[in-house]
């Protein structure tokens, strides 16, 4: 299995830096955000399999030519008359594989638990600090003069939150775009996607690609929700709603579908109650408004960089609506095939004999 280990190591290196950087710089994802999101998820899954599989194959190589065979031989080694003696590099490989798998899974579990707890607290505060919308189910209205809109996933109790300022200022078609946008976040469960990428980022805060992946996935998710709004009310009202909400909200950022607080604002800088019951103004980072998704820049320049990034994302979203250029079917099929291949290659390396 040494060949498998080497192949997985090369794939892990490629998926850890050059491939994500190329995808992040490409222009085509804005033309087909759903396909691009699938590709980002494939990169994450394949990268994890390769990163953990390479040392695992190295560690189990003395037991057999494939991972299933080696696992079986390793678990029954103590029952044989001539047990295999593992060299030191096999022990090191197994330790590294177990440590990486445990570390990543632990971060994923703690992120899910923390996000779920914060959403529950936020949901309870909304019940106290907001009023039900008079005509829309599962919609709450907060008393805020700014344009604020976000959704809060909570299972059967998921909510869409709108502000008085939004309801007073937006015409009916733009308000419908906002509501369709938030409904898309809930219906398509964007929060699940971003929780996984947030866990990856928090597990590897020193790894630039982890932060880049979280930011780009957040942008693609906003574009997918924009497309749902476009289908509901048209391009013009959706673009105007994005711009209007950004201007009236005073901050050109979005809440992330899957952030620790609100989810998926159409362009507002939302004010949400924190765990103490006070309002907090969410600082936009990239496109998701998460104040814990730092960009590695310290000091007072942080806010300027964040606002610049949010303004760039806002422009990117509006520009694709103003000049739509859907990705052609051959290109979409090629991207989907690439995503499938990325996951298939490390999987086959792990299960097939050398």
From TrEMBL:
Cofactor(s) of this protein: Zn(2+)
Keyword Transmembrane helix: yes
Name of this protein: M56 family metallopeptidase
Cofactor: binding details: Binds 1 zinc ion per subunit.
A molecular-function term among this protein's GO annotations: metal ion binding
Region annotated Disordered, chain positions: 254-302
BP term (GO), one: proteolysis
Domain Peptidase M48, chain residue ranges per copy: 131-204
Superkingdom assignment: Bacteria
Family membership noted in the UniProt record: Belongs to the peptidase M48 family.
Keyword Cell cycle recorded: no
Chain segments annotated as transmembrane: 34-58, 70-89, 95-117, 333-352
InterPro entries: Beta-lactam_resp_regulator, Peptidase_M48
Organism of derivation: Pseudoclavibacter endophyticus
Keywords carried by this UniProt record: Hydrolase, Membrane, Metal-binding, Metalloprotease, Protease, Transmembrane, Transmembrane helix, Zinc
